[in-house]
Amino acid sequence: MPLLSTLAGAAIGIVAPLIADRNRWKREDAKEALRLRLDVYTQYTTTVKVLGETLRALAKREHPSDVERALALREAFRESGIAIASERMWLIAPQPVVKASNNVFHCLRSIRDGYVDGTAAGSPEDRARWEARGKAAAEMRKLMREDLGVGPLTERHSPLLDDD
């Protein structure tokens, strides 16, 4: 009997630290995954915001020709980093967040294409596109916050475009 209790004690003494180490590793892994998603979400939302401001500024600017305006808008979209940020979302984020971020991407592309086709900044058609982008972005942020374990926002992130 003493031999069995010694063996049982030794087994518990060996297994308990292994279980504790495994649990600690799981917690650290979960924290790191959360930090990574936060970084990806921050990059994406920042890129979306900056790209939107850039598209609007280009749409309001005078251009020598419609062709040069279209080139400037397409170049701004390419150079914004939205494609890289979007790919990171596709690799890291859960499906609902990916779907929501993709909706925002398509809204921005629709805004760009509208400006390329000659839609005037501040026109009713432009305002409708921006409102769709705002709603898509609000849904995306809501899902991101849920994924990160942060409570919901009680106010709108960006003002409506009434100031233009």
Describe the structure using short key phrases.
164 residues, mainly alpha, 0% strand, elongated
N- to C-terminal distance: 86 Å
Please provide the ordered H/E string of secondary-structure elements: HHHHH
Helical amount: over 70%
- Counting DSSP E segments of at least 2 residues, the number of strands comes to 0
Largest sheet, in brief, is:
none
Unreliable runs = 160-164
Structural class based on helices, strands and sheet pairing: mainly alpha
Summarize model confidence as the mean pLDDT. 88
- Approximately what portion of the residues adopt beta-strand conformation? under 5%
- Radius of gyration equals 25 Å
So what's the oligomer here? single chain
Total DSSP helices = 5
Write down the overall geometry: elongated
